[in-house]
Design goal:
Blueprint (H helix, E strand, L loop, with lengths): L2 E5 L3 E8 L3 E6 L3 E5 L2 E5 L4 E5 L3 E2 L12 H16 L13
Antiparallel strand pairs: 1-2, 1-7, 2-3, 3-6, 4-5
Amino acid sequence: MSEIRYYKGVHRVRVATQSEAYFIVEALEDFEDQNDDKRVQVKKGDRRIVPVETLFKRKTLPPMVKEHAYELKMEKKLMQLLTSEKPRDNKPSNIET
């Protein structure tokens, strides 16, 4: 197959074989990776089994981590409330007794 892809959008690898969920890739450069919370040095020419979603056709940086959608929505509502709320008088209205 020998297609060039980018592992995690950063490291150049060559695809050796492909299945539905995984690729077997050969590293074209040295890099450091994490495997089961351990740092692993990957050397040029090493072969690895990687999930499909970790390979990209172009060199890109991974997307920024977004805040939780609910938190963003509530923050937006709070800002709208604060900007639209007018100061109120705490004086009782004209009530005759």
